[in-house]
Amino acid sequence: MDLAAPRSTQSSPLKPMFLAGNKMVAQHDAEEEIAHVRQDDLQLKKSIRILRVLQRLLATGLSLAALIPLTMTLIKFLQTKDIYKEVQMPDGTKVNRTAWAGDTIAWPTYMYFSIAATSFIMNLGTLIGYFWSTKAANYVAHVGSAFDYAVKAMNLIVWIVAAAIYKYEKEVLTNNLHRDLWGWSCSTAADQLQKAFVDEVPFGKYCTVQSGSWFAGLAHIGSIVLGVIITLMAGRRKTMQGRVKRETQEYEGQFGGPGSYGGAPQHGH
Fold first, then answer.
1. DSSP class of residue 157?
2. 139-152 burial string, b = 16+ CB within 10 Å, else e?
3. In whole angstroms, how far apart are CA 48 and each of 132, 235, 268, 269?
4. How far apart are CA 259 and CA 265, in angstroms?
5. Which of 18, 24, 128, 262 is 20 to 30 A (C-alpha) from 137?
6. Can you tell which superkingdom this protein's organism belongs to (predicted)?
């Protein structure tokens, strides 16, 4: 005869409390995870905004630093290219000539000027937008994306190629003479003409300012690299926003609505 006590078929009165406690713990953990990810997203958003403004300030200043010397050089060239004077050459002969090389090659300077001017205008426009409003900045950035945002890699390539060509043309000699504006300004041949054209073109000054323009261009390339890094950070933030959205949807599906974490994340720029 089985004398064992009959097994109860009723569940423990503590079981619902135990399950409810587990659900509360899981809910709390989920809320903490969402809140933590959202906090990381907000910090990254703030860092990106600060870096964007700093990068724009830097890029605007450097593109202007490259643009001003080029503008000065082109204005001086256009003002003096048709001024002829009788000049005594080192061999004693006298020739009637201008201060610049015969058959001057000016296109490298115009090319570099165009790149610097376009870059300055787009950077300044976006920078003004940042100080005007975030919405305006996003609009200006969108308008300028063909040069600066959507094709940052192309922007980088354009500046590298332009700086390289500008420098290369400075080193090219034709019959042992420089024919571009930068190379000519820094050449011995220009020094020999300086006395005759002392009131028209201070070659030493224009040699220095054009060299400064080239170095400013190199620094601007560095600012573009910084912009690429910021773009990668923005891509990381987009991934983080997707994670917050996914975890929020999972939370609301499991627990039935927003909790102390504050509901669905805000997907701002």
1. H
2. ebbeebeebbbeeb
3. 18, 11, 12, 10
4. 12
5. 262
6. Eukaryota
Residue written as token pair 């000016």: 106
* Bridge partner list, 95: 87
- Which of 48, 85, 98 is CA-nearest to residue 238? 48
What single-letter amino acid sits at 154? M
Give which of 136, 146, 172 is closest to 269, Cα–Cα. Answer: 136
Residue 22 Cα distances to 16, 110, 215, 258, angstroms: 10, 72, 64, 18
- Tokens describing residue 42: 């907000």
The residue whose two tokens read 């573009």 is 224
- Give the three-state DSSP class for 87: strand
Only one residue has tokens 């910090």, namely 43
Comparing CA positions, the residue from 247, 242, 249 lying closest to residue 267 is 242
Give the integer Cα–Cα distance in Å for 214 and 187. 17
3-class secondary structure, 9 = coil
> Among 258, 257, 255, 256, which residue's Cα sits nearest to residue 24?
255
Tokens of 260: 């102390």
CB-hemisphere CA count at 13 Å for 23? 9
Residues 117-170 pLDDT 10s: 999 998 898 888 777 766 665 555 554 444 445 667 888 899 999 999 999 999
Single out the residue of 95, 99, 75 nearest to residue 87, CA to CA: 95
